[in-house]
Design goal:
The complex is a heterodimer. By secondary structure, chain A is of the alpha/beta class. Chain A is built from 16 helices and nine strands. The longest helix of chain A has about 30 residues. Classes of the chains: A alpha/beta, B alpha+beta.
């Protein structure tokens, strides 16, 4: 059931993201920047809130007047800031909601990713408390409605002696002191929200907390345009002798409020509790089957830290050496954080399939799909390639090419393939060309797999793809499972291009069949490269 | 071409933001029907204690720790309050309101609202907060003119031991 929902949502997201990808490009695609945009809107709300506080009067009698002064008399700066404050808050809710749905759709909430998912739950609560207390402060008719319904909801909980809602049924019962409490809450809760947002990204390596500059700039200009087109305004002064019968509701922050008119407050709390419980338990419904975590082989690790640098999950760290090798540090894997993506294997300088050892070993490897097995698989699949344009596909198991058979080797992530594997395939004449096919560029399942692969191929990131490797014989295809036909077309085009290329000049000093030969008993390299 | 693409990107973002801005106060929500008002019955009031206070004997007082010695032993638990509300001679609410607090020594509380069509209504409220089982300790009846969207509050003031209509 959950899998079916996930599948439908994934299809939906892939359909939405494709046109966005075409228009914005993968780097600027807002759908791939939801978390970063959430942070961005938070900062806009924070800065605009500080600005508004300069003009805001916290007295119960003057609050509405001061907001009107901001909106009418100083619309061109403070009024725009008010609109910024409201719309950026709404946009943050949108970003959080879509971010949550997208992570669910792409199954990026189970296994070791439970932590980020779980800590997202208090973010939702705190975001809503921040927004609701904000609406309270304007002290217009909407604020009156929000105050009454919120306090009626709180009164249902058996924690307050006297019903808070009684404060909002007649004039004279409410004092500025109560209002000061709301101001304090509207400042304190967002600060706590920021703290939880930090906790939320704690276990993520290189979290995207800032959107690309161009996207941020466009968002700012768009906010200015929308703020001028539709400035945020109040809905008339509070009159406690009257019911705020009709209000313009913020459907992002207050969608459950009308439910209190249909259901009892207890039922609304039950709904909120059930939602929170469901979100909280989802990483274990059912739990993700986890492959065995990466293992470090100290005999081949010199503590170079490349795996530490490349791990997207901060699952590897350097610790003091525990053997007699003359290196100060060694890599250590935290099994509870490792998703077995294999990116560390691709980052390790010892991961070279050229090694003529009895048992191909590297500094860090996946127990369930080792570098040795990868090399054997490549050699086996390459043996079946025929014709003039023999193309071998190294495919990510989450991308469009994952379902290919015959000429494809599927990996947990394309960045598991060390650049030396590309060199190995071409120099041993195992194939005439190689396609590295991963996820859609804006939706890399392991976050950094595409980025690291491209940087390694461009010789911008260790380990480099050697200069001697002919780049015209390598192609990258980044496509989601919905873009299979495009991926196939690109692979076919590349195969045709490769077929028309002159013969390769690149040759390995070793014979073509070396890798498939019975292993020799000597070891050419000891330790790491 | 680049400018066109940029314009397209900006247009999409503006459209999304405009949609969000529109939903920030539209469509409007009406919580009560037009041409109607609300009668709110709400008060916080503690009924009598369930039992009478008993004078402790000299021996009993002597047995108590010196800092906790008292003359009387009074039960903490309060009685529930029984309340009824009639509108236009029709009973719309009756409840026995238990005392609040873990020990049952807090005041009883009520917070109920009734949506009524605007116009003249005969409102009667009655309350029992003592040990009596019949009749009422406090009551008030009045004809009120409810205007559209009006919040008509029925409160109880313990200091004057009377209902307040406002």
């Amino acid at each position: 059931m959950i899998g079916a929902i996930r599948s439908v949502l994934r299809t939906g997201f892939a359909l939405i993201e494709q046109p966005f990808d075409r228009l914005f490009g993968p780097a600027l695609n807002p759908v791939a920047q939801l978390g970063a945009l959430g942070f961005f809107f938070f900062w806009i709300v924070a800065v605009s809130g500080i600005y508004l506080f300069i003009f805001f009067n916290t007295g119960i009698e003057r609050a509405y007047q001061s907001v009107e002064y901001i909106t009418r008399d100083h619309w061109f700066h403070a009024g725009v800031m008010r609109s910024f404050h409201r719309y950026a808050s709404d946009l943050m809710v949108v970003m959080v909601a879509v971010h949550l749905l997208r992570e669910f759709a792409y199954d990026r909430y189970r296994g070791v990713r439970w932590y980020s998912w779980f800590t997202g739950l208090p973010i939702i609560w705190l975001l809503y408390v921040s927004g609701i207390t904000g609406y309270w402060l304007v002290w217009d008719r909407l604020a009156q409605y929000v105050a009454i319904v919120s306090s009626e909801l709180l009164d249902w909980l058996p924690i307050f002696g006297e019903p808070i809602a009684r404060n909002f049924i007649s004039t004279g019962t409410l004092t500025s002191r109560f209002f000061s409490l709301m101001v304090f809450m509207h400042v304190a809760v967002p600060l706590f929200l920021l703290f939880i947002m930090w906790v939320h990204i704690l276990r993520i390596s290189r979290p995207k907390v800032n959107p690309p500059r161009a996207l941020a700039l466009m968002s700012l200009v768009a906010l200015v345009a929308v703020s001028i087109w539709k400035p945020a305004i109040s809905q008339g002064s509070v009159d406690l002798a009257k019911v705020p019968a009709e209000v313009g509701l913020d459907w992002f922050f207050l969608p459950i409020y009308p439910l209190t008119n249909i259901w009892s407050n207890g039922t609304v709390w039950a709904l909120l509790g059930a939602f929170s419980l469901m979100i909280g338990l989802m990483p274990w419904l059912p739990p993700l089957r986890r492959a065995k975590p990466a293992e470090v082989d100290l005999a081949h690790c010199n503590g170079c830290a490349r795996c530490v640098e490349d791990c997207p999950y901060e699952a590897i760290r350097l610790v003091g050496r525990t053997d007699n090798m003359p290196f100060p540090t060694q890599a250590q894997v935290n099994p509870s954080l490792c998703v077995s993506c294999g990116i560390c294997v691709g980052a390790c300088p010892s991961s070279t399939p050229f090694r003529r050892t009895r048992d191909l070993r590297t500094g860090i490897d996946l127990p369930e799909f080792s570098l040795k097995e990868l090399r054997e698989k490549v050699v086996e699949v390459a043996g079946g390639l025929k014709g003039s344009g023999r193309v071998l596909v190294l495919a990510c198991e989450h991308g469009a090419a994952a379902g290919r058979i015959g000429d494809t080797v599927v990996l947990p992530c394309v960045a598991m393939a060390p650049p030396s594997l590309i060199d190995f395939i071409l120099s041993r004449d195992l194939a005439d060309g190689i396609v590295v096919a991963g996820c859609a560029e804006s939706a890399c399942y392991n976050r950094l797999g595409i980025r690291w692969t491209e940087q390694r191929f461009a010789a911008e990131r260790d380990p480099y793809l050697r200069a001697r490797v002919p780049r015209e014989r390598i192609a990258t295809v980044w496509a989601s499972t919905l873009a299979v036909s495009r991926a196939e077309r690109e692979i076919a085009d590349f195969a045709a291009r490769v077929a028309s290329l002159p013969p390769k000049r690149l040759r390995s000093p070793l014979p073509a069949s070396a890798a498939s030969r019975p292993p020799k008993t000597f070891e050419t390299e000891k330790g790491s490269a | 071409m680049r400018a066109l693409r940029l314009a397209g990107q900006f247009a999409v973002i503006v459209a999304l933001f405009a949609g969000v801005a529109a939903l920030s106060d539209w469509p409007t929500y009406r919580q009560i029907p037009g041409n109607s008002g609300v009668v709110m019955l709400t008060f916080v009031h503690g009924a009598d204690r369930r039992g009478e206070c008993r004078r402790l004997t000299a021996e009993e007082i002597a047995k108590l720790p010196p800092n906790m010695r008292r003359v009387q032993d009074c039960p903490r638990v309060r009685r529930p309050i029984y309340v009824e509300l009639d509108v236009d001679s029709r009973n719309v609410y009756q409840a026995s309101l238990p005392p609040t607090g873990i020990a049952g020594d807090g005041p009883s509380r009520v917070y109920q609202r009734f949506v009524l069509p605007a116009g003249k209504h005969n409102v009667a409220v009655r309350m029992r907060d003592t040990a009596r089982t019949e009749g009422f300790d406090h009551e008030r009846q009045e004809s009120v003119e409810l205007s559209p969207d009006q919040m008509f509050v029925i409160d109880y003031r313990p200091e004057s031991a009377s209902f307040v209509f406002r």
